[in-house]
Amino acid sequence: MRSILDEQYRDPPSIESLASTVALSASRLSHLFRDQVGMSIQSYVVERRLIMAAMLIVQSDERISQIVYSVGFRDVSNFNHSFKRRFAMSPREYRARHDLIGADSPRSS
């Protein structure tokens, strides 16, 4: 189940679709997922998107708004709020902090 969500986090299947894949009701799947993973399916997808966005923010010069849409968020404001809650800083601050760290560390040849 998690592997499906990890691969399809940009546009995940519905809970009903996931549930039919494993022959469970949507409510039972949701309950079992929360017990096993410690968060809801939707929270898991949001967490995956945030982690992927953080990685792209650090590893690319792509505009943050483009990254937001590329990882599956549909609203920049919602992304900014979620990102700040998860990483305790804005996406722009996150990029700047990692740029400084990268500038201070020796580069391998």
Present the secondary structure layout.
Blueprint: H1 2-7, H2 15-21, H3 26-37, H4 41-59, H5 64-70, H6 76-87, H7 91-104
Question: What brief labels describe this structure?
Answer:
109 residues; mainly alpha; Arc Repressor Mutant, subunit A; 71% helix; disordered C terminus
Estimated radius of gyration? 17 Å
Average pLDDT confidence is 92
Class inferred from helices and paired strands: mainly alpha
Residue share in β-strands:
under 5%
Verbal overview:
The protein has 109 residues and is an all-alpha fold. Helices cover 71% and strands 0% of the residues. The chain has helices spanning 2-7, 15-21, 26-37, 41-59, 64-70, 76-87, 91-104. It is elongated, with a radius of gyration of 17 Å. 17% of the residues are buried. Residues 105-109 have low confidence and may be disordered.
Summarize the structure.
The chain has 109 residues and is mostly helical. It is 71% helix and 0% strand. It has helices at 2-7, 15-21, 26-37, 41-59, 64-70, 76-87, 91-104.
